Amino acid sequence: MTSPSALAAVRGVVARDLQRALRQRSRLLGGLARPLLWLLLVGTGYGAIARLEGGVPYHAFVFPGVVVMAALFGAMLTAIGTVYDREFGMLRLMLASPAGVAAILVGRALAAAAVGVLQGGVVLLFAPLAITITMGQGLAALGALVLGALVFAVLGLLVAARLRSVENFAGVINVVLFPLLFASGALYPVGGMPAPMRLLARANPVTYAVDLVRQAMGLAGEWRAVNDLVVMVGVAAAAFLLTALLFDPEQRLIRARRNSAVA
Amino acid sequence: MTAPLAVQAARLGRDYGATRALEGLDLEVPAGALVGLLGPNGAGKTTAMLLLATLLAPTRGSAALFGCDTRRDRRAARQRLGLVFQEPSVDGLLTVEENLRFAARLAGLREREARAAVRATLDRVGLTARAAQPARTLSGGWRRLADIARATLHRPALLILDEPTVGLDPEHRERVWALLDEERRTRGCAILFSTHYLAEAEPADHVVLLAAGRVAAAGEPALLRRALGAAVVELEGSGAAGAVRLLQCDDLVSRAIRTDRGYRVALRDAHAPALERLAAAPGLTRVTVRETTLEDVYFAVTVCASDDAP
Description:
- The complex is a heterodimer of chains A (263) and B (310).
- Chain A is mostly helical and 263 residues long.
- Chain A is built from twelve helices and no strands.
- The two termini of chain A are 29 Å apart.
- In chain B, the strands form three sheets. Chain B has a six-stranded mixed beta sheet, with helices on both faces. A four-stranded antiparallel beta sheet of chain B has the order 2-1-4-5. Chain B has a four-stranded antiparallel beta sheet with strand order 12-13-11-14, with helices on both faces.
- The radius of gyration of chain B is 22 Å and the shape is elongated.
C-alpha cells in the first residue's frame, strides 16, 4: 500500500473528491447551515428548559455536540460520491488501477474526513458565541475533530460499500445518521439517558468523539480521554478492514478458490 | 525467446449464481493485435472483458495478461492495462485536464510524469482547446474521446474496450478508430474490443463470436466470411421461403437465415446460377446480391437453429 503508485493514487482520489465537494456549493453550504440552525433554534429552545449538572448552560454543553454533528454529517454524506461512482462506472476504473482497493479507500476516507473537518471547523469558529475556550482548547478540539471525522468518513464508506444506487444511499444514510447523533450524548448527557439508551450510546462511536471534543473544550467528560481515543482508533481500523472486504468481494472469491486449489 | 501474449485465456468462465454467463473462453491476443469480441446482448462479452480486466474472479479457467495471472498478479496485470467501458467514465464536475490528471495519478505516475503525460495526451487526442472545459459540457463524442484519452494516457500495452463507439456519430467513430489505430501502429498496443457495429470488426486480426456464453465461432474475419459462403442473397416477399427451398434443392445454399424481412441466403459458390433460379421464382419483392459480411456470419452463428429453416 505504501508504494509510490499507491501514494499517487491516494493523492489523486483526495484531490478529485475535494474538487467535487468544493464545486457542489449548495451541498457544502447546507452542511454548514444545518448545525448553525440547530445551535440557534434547538440550543435556544432547550436552553430555556434544560437544567444540567454543575450548572453548565445548555448552549455550552451542546456546542461540542453540534461541532461533531457538523463533522458527522459532512464526512458520512461525502460517501455518496462512492455510490455515485459505482452507479456510473467510475468506481470500476478506480478499482482496476494498480493501486488497489486499500489505496482508493484511504484516499476516499481522507477526502471525506477533510470535508467533515471543514464543516465542523467552521462551526468551531462560532465557539465564542456559546462557550468560553482558550486558543489551546480550540486547537485540541480541532485535533479531536480530525480523529472523529476520520472515524465518520470510514463509517460512511462502510455504509456505501455494497449500495448500488444513490437513491438507496440517501434512504439508508438517514436511518444510520440520526440514531448515531441522537444516541451519542451530543444533545443530552449520556448519564441522564434511560438504561437501554445508555447501552446504545456506549456502543456508538460518535459518543466517544463527542466526549473527546467536549473534554478538549474543558468540559467534563463521561470517560477518560485516552479511553475515547482507543475506542475511536479501534472502530476506525475495524470499519476500514470490513469496508475493504465488502468493497472487493471478488478478491475474497479469488482467495477462496486459491485455498480450495491448495487443499 | 518469444514475447508473452498480451492476453492468454484458457477455459475462462464465470457464473453468477445459477446463471452461466461465460462457459469457457479460449483466447490468445498477441502483442499489437486487434481482436474483436462479438455477439448479441447477454452473450458474455462484458463478463469476458471484466474477467480479463481483473475486475471479476473467474469461476473456472484462467487468464494472463503479458504472462501476469489476473488472479495472483493483479497489480502487475493492471499496470499494462487501459480500460474503456460502455458508459463514459469521465467526471462531469471536473475539467477535461483534471480528469486526465486524476487518471495519471491512479495509474501511479509521479507528478512531473503525470503533467507531461496529460499535456501529451491532450495534444494527441485533440482536446487541448477543451482542456479547461468541465467534462459535463462536452458533447457525447468528445466525452468518449476524453475517455479514450484517459485510458491511453499511461501508454498501456493492452487496451480493453467495451463498445467504445456506442452512440457516436460517424465522425467521432472515425476519430476514435483513428486514435486506436495510432496506438497500435506507433506503440504496438494490443486491442481487445467489443462492438455491435460489425463493420468495425472487419479489419480485426481475429474475432470471437459469443452466443449464450459460448464461443460460437472464431477466426480471421475473411476466413469466417469465406467459410459461410461466396456471396449472400437477401430475399423478401411472400415467395421467399419457396425460393430458398428451390435453391436448396439445387444444393446452392450454404446457410439460409430467416430474418424479420425475409431470408439471408449464403451461397456456396458464385451467385450466377442462383440468380438464374430466382428469376423464375414467384412472389419475390426484392432480391439483393452482395458480398458476404461479418454481419452475415454473426446472424448465421447467433440466430437460433430452429429459426433458419424455411
